[in-house]
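Limitations

Structures in this collection are predictions, not experimental determinations, and the ligand pose is part of the prediction. Treat each record accordingly. The example that follows, with 4'-deoxy-4'-aminopyridoxal-5'-phosphate as the small molecule, is included so readers can see exactly what is and is not provided: the inputs are given verbatim, and the output is the predicted complex.
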Amino acid sequence: MKPNTAVLQMDPYKPPSSGRDGFLRLDFNENTVGCSPRVVRALMRALNREMLTVYPEYESCRAEMAAAFGSSGDDILLTNGTDDALLLLMNTFVEPSHRIVVAEPCFAMYRFYASLMGAEVIGVHRGKRFEFPEDGVREELRRGARAVFIDNPNNPTGTVVTPEYIESLAREFPQTLVVVDEAYYDFYGKTALPLRHKYTNLVITRTFSKAQGLAGIRLGLIFASTETAAHLRKAHSPYNVNGLAVVAGLAALRDRQYPRRYAKAIVAARKYLERELRRLKIDYIPSAANFVLAQFGERAIEMRDALRSRGILVRDRSYEAPGWVRVTVGTMPQMKRLVRELERL
Ligand code: PMP
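Predicted complex:
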């Protein structure tokens, strides 16, 4: 069977996501110590045949999430991770031939899901030091675009745009959906969340995959105006978030100290790593997230492989930014181990 035209024309997306057991995993920006033990206990308590037998219920979970974020409840949706949120946004708002704007490099799934819709993806190049191309993006939106996707902080560079810039886009381009992906919010601390009630074209996504350490369970959130959220709810599959994710998400939400403490430790370790990179004369991009993009030059792939043979996984990004390798920031002892190996190599 021939797939549809959009799928025929797409490049496959294949992250190297197997055989990672036993390594120090600094390749996917996950939490490097694991989720809160309270989440595990909540899952163990909840796990029984009955809860696996019935379809998941979301209302009380959504209400508690909404209360925690100061929301009404009508303006928030649970999703099966950010990926599901992106697909839902595309399904709800994007049609074939619509123009979708991204600032590249960025999280690969924006291009992936937009291409799947048959949309035209406009990749505006970031600056020399990967700074956000504010004028270039504005220029493309002026030409007319259905949506712009901004990861803030950006993956893979850790650079950011200000809430003021985001607000200016939402204000100047009311016909364009402005999607702000705040997957790394906990490590940065600035958010566009309060703006969502002011601009019906502004949408914010969050995930439990990073600071909360729940990438394996798949849980994310969409925040939007009540009007936009109503459209999204209409297009959403009824049972896309599983019952265990609901239990884990609630337990994570109730244990606010855990991601806070983790993010604090990671920001301290990031400062340490950045200092050590300067000492080793390895160029890097100052980061607001739980990873740092470092320039390993022509040795990028060799370094990645050598680190792997020493038990450490990092992510080479040469395919989009030659010589640049993305390293997830873990705890201080983990970063000391990394620096020791970098020094040897
Ligand atoms: N957004 C960004 C910017 C990311 O880097 C990632 C993870 N690589 C995600 C979203 C994925 O989040 P989720 O696990 O919630 O699908």
